[in-house]
Amino acid sequence: MKSLDTAPDPGLASLYRLRLRDLQLLQQIAEVRSLTAIADQRGVSQPALSRALKEIETALGAQIFERTKSAMLAPTPIGQHVLARASLVLADAQALQSEIHAFEDGKGAHLRLGIIPYITSSLLEGVLDRLTCPPWRMSVSVTEGTTDQLIAALRRQELDVVIGRLSADVSSDLLRERLFTQQAGIVSRLTPAPGPAPLGLPALLDYEWVLPPMRSPTRQAFTELFVQHDLPAPTARIETTSLNVIQAALRHEDNRLALLPADIGRELRQHGLLAYRDFPIPFPMPVVGLISLPRTRALPSVRTFRDALYRVLPRVPL
Questions:
Q1: Other CB atoms closer than 10 Å to residue 300's CB: what's the count?
Q2: How far is CA 243 from CA 6, 75, 258, 264, 273, in A?
Q3: Beta-carbon neighbour count of residue 291 at 10 Å?
Q4: Could you read off the pLDDT tens digit of each residue along the chain, which spans 318 residues?
Q5: 211: Cβ–Cβ under 8 A, 6 or more apart, which residues?
Q6: Cα angle value 94/95/98 (rounded, 5°)
Q7: CA dihedral of residues 221, 223, 225, 229 (deg, nearest 10)
Q8: What is the pTM of this model?
Q9: If DSSP codes are grouped into helix, strand and coil, which group holds residue 318?
Q10: Beta carbons of 213 and 168 less than 8 angstroms apart
Q11: Residue 305: φ, ψ to 5°
């Protein structure tokens, strides 16, 4: 059995001397590109920063920055790799600090949750209530964005878990868990331009549209639906996934429609914000699911979140 006081690997001994503030300095140099400017910001001398950078490069055994023709500092090829790794370490450290603060405040663990905008308020309220109230008393930071944006943040370890569209990324480094499917619906201003008569699929081509971005899973499914029926896909006058932007875009336009999940559209109608109608034909939107990395799935905060989510889901109409 190896002793706990076994000496570190000699090849790694120099790395153990690095501190988080050393990695933060590398990040700042990469952003500012000038030791003189950083010295002014920190209130230290430029030679002192030069020595600090030299010590860090010695510990790493590699030159991280080089002078450009404009006398600014730029990362070397290996420096770019080091900086990418440093950002992951600092993100982990920040997450650990948040959890420590949460425990000190008596709130339990801290969860960094990413969600797409098209999650009903009833589902989100139910989950947040369970997480933040006794017995768990967690703290939660919620980031809203498109699935590809959230996955990028997950890979940078800025998020612990994501609720997003499962068709957005097929990489094998992600763990995926199917939750539910939403049917598509259509929203318009409160005095609906289409009138009481039902709309057929060809009639949708006569309207301006507010749609998700071109590369999003929902937009791709929307386009494929029209292609399958030998129709040209409507183009977007406005591209967004923001509910606030959708409401603003429709408020004064009689000839404009927006694509939303049916459950979201009904919520907006119930709150008196927009008019809603079913999509002309059955149109299941891409599956919504949990997305995480193997290393984060085992976090106590993520396990608690999954438990809360599955307790709320059966009580939420989808």
A1: 13
A2: 57, 40, 10, 9, 11
A3: 22
A4: 344 344 445 555 556 667 888 888 888 888 888 888 888 888 888 888 888 888 888 888 889 888 887 778 888 988 888 888 888 777 777 777 766 665 555 456 889 999 999 999 999 999 999 999 988 888 999 999 999 999 999 999 899 999 999 975 657 789 999 999 999 999 999 875 545 456 899 999 999 999 999 988 899 999 999 999 999 999 999 999 999 999 999 998 989 999 999 999 999 999 999 999 999 999 999 999 999 998 888 888 898 999 999 999 976 665
A5: 219, 222, 234, 236, 238, 239, 258, 259
A6: 90
A7: -160
A8: 0.67
A9: coil
A10: no
A11: -60, -45
Burial class (CB in 10 A: 0-12, 13-18, 19+), 271: exposed
Question: Residue 228 and residue 211: Cα distance in Å, rounded?
Answer: 19
Q: Which of 168, 144, 176 is nearest to 285 (CA)?
A: 168
Angle (CA) 106 109 114, round 5°:
135
d(CA 274, CA 258): 10
Preceding amide of 286 cis, omega within 30: no
Beta bridge partners of 36: none
Phi, psi of 84 (to 5 degrees): -65, -45
Residue 10: CB atoms within 10 Å:
7
Bond before 317 cis per omega within 30 degrees? no
Using the structure block, give the residue that is written with the tokens 């498109």.
146
Q: Which amino acid is at 124?
A: L
